[in-house]
């Protein structure tokens, strides 16, 4: 990109594109703040998909049947795919994916705090599919209409695949609920541990979310954090009932006036703690990512050298 | 830093033909050491659920593109040639099949 001076026409074209609900495309002029916000959001999202392979990946070798193993492998492979769609979108903004990975490893860019919790039993695989992927779907469906074209298109692909993720999780839990009392207990225990962190996935409450207003104005975001969180609670309550589990919130009750489920206060100090690096698995997740990057370096170098040699031989 | 850039795989744009009878459509990009690897990666990344019957990969460096700044000048010539459209010609309603 050449450093052309910003003209009124550039700015006007951008504002009009947003106002008309059209998409901003890679080579269009855009405000620096918009570009920065987009890169940060897409990178953070990509990192979440990549780190998100770890909690469930741990169960691939211990899946209880070949069917469950095949499903879990496909799911974890999808997470890798989602990460790559998103890095691809970030590169259209001039970001470099190698650089983004370095930023993740060095802790200069974040990923979703949900992946800093451990997966203690196989029921966690089901609950992640049901609740964590369910919350992700709530967040991501509106992003399919996000103002940045490549991001919106990546989200459309991702949402199509997330639906498989959520359904396999719920089906896994239904199977366990039909099992022994010990299996039902495992499911309830996993629900107890994942429910509140899932609600935190929507981010801080609206009055404490500093970037939200600008993102809404740029139509990067379409709904507020609290709106999406409420939507998720309303969706999950009947699903929990059908499954036969209790959501761990004594204040959860239907509010006829609002037409929504009321729920208890969220412990925001926990979210802050986990985001700032003090969750149960933060260090492990980053260490695994660093090791994968370092141990894969020779493969990347060898492939590049091989390609170079073949090109020279062919030329 | 320069060392790392040297080893970095180039970017490829990926186009997928969803089924026979349709054009290849751009679906995204990926990194690969060469064209052969790019095709394999494209298959794994963009066609995990029978989304395609054929794939093209093109080095992103090799794509020439019109620039948004020149949009006016570039596309304007077609703007005032309304006679290129069938609706420009008025034909009486009584004439069939035209």
From TrEMBL, chain A:
<dbReference type="GO" id="GO:0097266">
    <property type="term" value="F:phenylacetyl-CoA 1,2-epoxidase activity"/>
</dbReference>
<dbReference type="Pfam" id="PF05138">
    <property type="entry name" value="PaaA_PaaC"/>
</dbReference>
<protein>
    <submittedName>
        <fullName>Phenylacetate-CoA oxygenase subunit PaaA</fullName>
    </submittedName>
</protein>
<dbReference type="InterPro" id="IPR052703">
    <property type="entry name" value="Aromatic_CoA_ox/epox"/>
</dbReference>
<dbReference type="InterPro" id="IPR012347">
    <property type="entry name" value="Ferritin-like"/>
</dbReference>
<dbReference type="GO" id="GO:0010124">
    <property type="term" value="P:phenylacetate catabolic process"/>
</dbReference>
<dbReference type="InterPro" id="IPR007814">
    <property type="entry name" value="PaaA_PaaC"/>
</dbReference>
<dbReference type="InterPro" id="IPR011881">
    <property type="entry name" value="PaaA"/>
</dbReference>
<dbReference type="InterPro" id="IPR009078">
    <property type="entry name" value="Ferritin-like_SF"/>
</dbReference>
<dbReference type="GO" id="GO:0005829">
    <property type="term" value="C:cytosol"/>
</dbReference>
Automatic annotation (TrEMBL), chain B:
<dbReference type="InterPro" id="IPR009359">
    <property type="entry name" value="PaaB"/>
</dbReference>
<dbReference type="Pfam" id="PF06243">
    <property type="entry name" value="PaaB"/>
</dbReference>
<protein>
    <submittedName>
        <fullName>Phenylacetate-CoA oxygenase subunit PaaB</fullName>
    </submittedName>
</protein>
<dbReference type="InterPro" id="IPR038693">
    <property type="entry name" value="PaaB_sf"/>
</dbReference>
